[in-house]
Amino acid sequence: MADVPIDGQVIVLTAAKASVPPARLPDLLERTTAHLSPQVERYRREYEQIYEDEHREAFLVEWSHWDEVGVTLELGDREASAVRRAHEEQLLRIGRKRDREAEFETALEIREAVFFPIVEATDASR
Question: Which segments constitute the DUF8048 domain (predicted)?
Answer without folding.
Answer: 5-115
